[in-house]
Amino acid sequence: MNKLFKLFWTYNLPRWTILIIDTLICAFALTLAFALRFDFSAIPEADAKNLPYDFIIVLGTRVASFVLFKTYKGVVRYTSSKDTARIFGVVMVGSVDIVLLNVICFSAFQFYFIPNSVIIIDALVTSFLMISSRLAVKALYFESKNPAREKINVIIYGAGEAGIITKRTLDRDAAVKYKVAAFIDDEEKKHGNRIEGINVYGFKKLNELIKDHHVELVIISAQKISTQKKNDIADVCLENNVRVLNVPPAAKWINGELSFNQIKSIRIEDLLERDPIKLDTDMIASALKGKTILITGAAGSIGSELARQCAKFQPKKIYMLDQAESPLHELELEFADKLVKPSFEVVMADVRNIDRMKHVFASFKPNIVFHAAAYKHVPMMENNPSESILTNILGTKNVADLAHEHNVERFVFVSTDKAVNPTNVMGASKRIAEIYIQSLGKHSATKFITTRFGNVLGSNGSVIPRFKKQIEEGGPITVTHPDITRYFMTIPEASQLVLEAASMGKGGEIFVFDMGKSVKIVDLAHKMILLMGLKEGKDISIVYTGLRPGEKLYEELLANNENTMPTHHAQILIGKVREYEYNEVKSIIEQLIHSFETQNNELIVQRMKDLVPEFISNNSVFQKLD
Questions:
Q1: CB 234 within 8 A of CB 220
Q2: pLDDT at 91
Q3: How far is Cα 49 from Cα 72, in angstroms, rounded to an integer?
C-alpha cells in the first residue's frame, strides 16, 4: 500500500485528467443543485425537459472557463490560498455567464432554460467541491510525506496573525516534521478558543501542555513580547529540555512571507535584552541635524553603531575614524550597500598621532565629536600599562584638546563602568581620561560630556561570542570565578543612550546608564548550554580558571563616595563625582604620558594610582604598590 502511495505521489496527473475530474465534479454539483432546489423531489416537467440542454450549456461554460483560465494546470497537491481564490473566481465568472445566457434566453423566448436559484446553488456547490477536493488531496499528500505519528509536537506562543502564519508555514513545508499541539497567548479573551482547529491556552498551562503532549519545541511567534516574558518561557522550556525558537520580525520576512528556515533558535542575547528604550528623538534631531559629526573608534562595536544611529537624524556629514583598516573597510561597504543617506567618509587615522589629528580637525571642522577609540580588554592593559596611557589617556587628550581649540560644540566621551573604583590599569586609564576632559570643560566653550556604562552584548571579545565559540568547539566553557557577575546592555541601546545623553548634556556631566540587573556569568553559561540543546557534564563542561589580572568579581557604576541625580530619562542618571582643577590635572597627566618613554610599568602604574587614589589593584602584580 505504501509503495502504491509513493508511486501515486511520484508523478503528476496529466492535465487533461484534472480537467475531466473537474468536469465530473461540475456535473455532480449541478445534479446536487437541482436536487436541493426541488427538495430531492421530482423535477417539474417544464424544467425536466430542459435538463439535457442545462447540462450541455453549464458544463460547456465551465469547461470553456477552465480552459481559458487554465485552472487545471496547477499541481493539486501544492494548492495555495491563491489557487483557491482563483478557482472561486473562475467558477463565479462562469456562473455569471450562465445567468447572462439565461437572461438572453428569456428575452428571446420568454422562458428561463434553467432556474436562477439552481445557478446560484450550483456555483456554491461547485466552488466548495473543487476547492475541498484539492485541499483533501493536499492534506493526504502531506500526511503521506509526514505521518502524524512521526511528527514532533510543537507549541506556538502567540495566537495572533504571526502565530497563524507560523502554523501555516509549518503545515506547508513538506520537509518539516512538526505538528502544532497548542497555541499559548497572553490575551485572556483568546483562551478557550480554537484557531485553525488548535486550542488556545494561557501561559500557566505551558508546563502542563509540554508534558501532556510530549512537546519538543516551542516557537515564540509574538512580535511584541517583553524580555521578561521571553525569559519566563525559556525557563519553563529549558526545565523540560524543550528547545525554544523565535520568529523574526515581520520586516525581515522574505517578500512578506515567512519560511521555516527563518525561524531560528532563540539567542542568549534575546533573553538579556531589555524593553525598547524611549528616546526624545526631537531633542536628538535638534542636536544632530545638519551637523558635521566625527566618530573616533568608528570601526568598533559602539563606534559603528553610533554611526548607524547618527545617520537617522540627518546630519550634514559623518566622518568615521579608526586605525583598524579591515573593520573600517567593512563599515564603509556596509554604509555603501545600505545607501545611507547622509554623506559619510571613512578616515584612517590614529588618535595618538597629534599631527594627523590636527589635520583631521582642520580639514573636516566637526561640530560634534563622539570619542569611542580606546583599548578595552582588562588583561591586555594589565600586561601593557604603557599602551593604555598612550591610547586611552594621550589619545583622549589629543582629541579633547583639538575639540577645544576648534570650538567643537559637543565632545562626548564613551567611558566604562570599570572606571569606578578601578582595580585594573584599563579602568584607571579611563578614569584619568574622564578627569581630564571634565576639568578641561570648565575652561572651554565646548560641552564636554562623559557617558559611562558596562558590557555590551556581542561586542568584539565579549563573553557571549567567546562562550559560543567554545560550545561550537565542544568545550570546555571557561569561567573565571563561580561568583563573578556583570552588567549587560545591547549595542543599539547603549548607542541610543549615548545620543540621548549627548543631546541633553550641558557640559561637565558624567552620565551613568541604568544597566538593569547584574547577571551571574556562570548562569549565563548554563543557559547558553541548554539553549544549544546540550547537557552540562554530558555534552560539555564548565571549567573555572580563576580571576584574570585586574579583574573584579562585581562591576560598579558609581564609586562609593559618589551619588546620582535623575534626568528626564529614567535610564540616564548624572553622577556626582569629585572634580579636579585643570592646571593641576594637566601637569600630572602630562608627566604620566611622558613616563611612557621609560617603559617602566611600575612607575607608570604608581603615577596612575597617585592621580586616582581609589585605584586599588586586584589579582595583579601591581598590588604591591597599594
A1: no
A2: 84
A3: 32
**How does DSSP classify residue 536?**
B
One-letter identity of residue 356? R
- The C-alpha angle 452, 462, 235, rounded to 5 degrees, equals 100
Residue 5 pLDDT? 46
At 613, which amino acid appears? P
- According to CATH, the superfamily of the domain at 286-462+485-517+555-625 is NAD(P)-binding Rossmann-like Domain (3.40.50.720)
Would you say the C-alpha torsion 350, 356, 357, 359 has a positive or negative sign? negative
Distance (Å, whole) CA 143 – CA 2 = 12
Question: Of residues 252 and 431, which shows the higher confidence score?
Answer: 431
Find out whether the peptide bond into 476 is cis, omega within 30 degrees of 0.
yes
Quick: pLDDT tens for 279-311.
788 888 888 999 999 999 999 989 999 999 999
Query: From CA 238, how far away is CA 464, in angstroms rounded?
Result: 19
- Contact 462/456 with Cβ under 8 angstroms? yes
Lowest mean pLDDT among 224-238, 334-348, 393-407, 564-578: 564-578
Is residue 338 annotated as a catalytic residue, yes or no? no
Give ranges for CATH 3.40.50.720 in the chain.
Answer: 148-266, 286-462+485-517+555-625
Three-class DSSP category at 356: helix
| DSSP H helical ranges for 173-222 | 206-212
Question: DSSP class of residue 50?
Answer: T
CA distance 400 to 411: 7
Determine the Cα–Cα distance for residues 289 and 310; give it in Å rounded to an integer: 9
Half-sphere exposure of 548 (CA within 13 A, CB side): 14
Strand partners, 566: 573
CB-based contacts of 409: which residues, under 8 Å, 6+ apart? Answer: 291, 367, 368, 446, 447
Mean pLDDT on 439-457 = 88
Q: Is 154 left (phi over 0), alpha (psi -120 to 50) or beta?
A: beta
Look at residue 222 and give its three-state secondary structure. coil
SS3 17: helix
pLDDT value at residue 7 = 46
Residue 13, classified by CB atoms within 10 Å of its CB into exposed (0-12), middle (13-18) or buried (19+), is middle
CA-to-CA dists, residue 63 to 31, 55, 58, 73, 82, angstroms:
16, 12, 9, 13, 20
Q: Once rounded to an integer, what is the mean pLDDT over residues 513-524?
A: 81
Distance of CA 53 to the CA centre of its chain: 63
In CATH, 148-266 is 3.20.20.70: no
Select the more confidently predicted residue: 261 or 624: 624
pLDDT at 586 over 70: yes
Residues 1-11: pLDDT tens digits?
Answer: 444 444 444 55
Mean pLDDT along residues 572-599: 88
- Ranges assigned E (strand) in 158-208: 178-184, 194-195, 198-201
> Greatest CA span in the chain, whole angstroms?
118
283 three-class SS: helix
Tell me the mean pLDDT in the region 90-98. Answer: 84
Q: Mapped to the 3 state alphabet, what secondary structure does 406-441 carry?
A: CCCCEEEEECCHHHCCCCCHHHHHHHHHHHHHHHHH
Cα 31 from Cα 40, distance rounded (Å) = 10
Three cell numbers, residue 604: 607608570
**Which DSSP letter does residue 568 get?**
S
Band (pLDDT 50/70/90 cuts) for residue 478 is: very high
Residues in the chain: 626
Catalytic-role residue among 138, 230, 418, 527: 418
